Amino acid sequence: MIPALSTLACAAAISLLVLAPASAADWPAELVKKIEQIDQRSPGSVGVYVKRLDDGKEMSYAGDRPWYLASTAKVPIAVAVLQQVERGKLSMDQQFALADTDKVDGSGELVWQASGKRYSVETLLDAMLMRSDNTAANILVRAIGQDTLNAGARDYMGRREVGELTSYTQIRYDVYSELHPSARDLSNRNLVEIAGADMGPARVQAFTRSAELKAADLQVDTMRDAYARYYQRGLNTATMEGYGAMLEKLVQGKLLPDAKRDMLFEYMKINEPGEYRLAGGLPRKTSFIHKTGTQFERACHVGVINPRESAAIVVAACVEGVDENKPAENLLREVGQAVAQTVMADKI
Question: Where would one find the signal peptide in this protein (predicted)?
Answer without folding.
Answer: 1-24
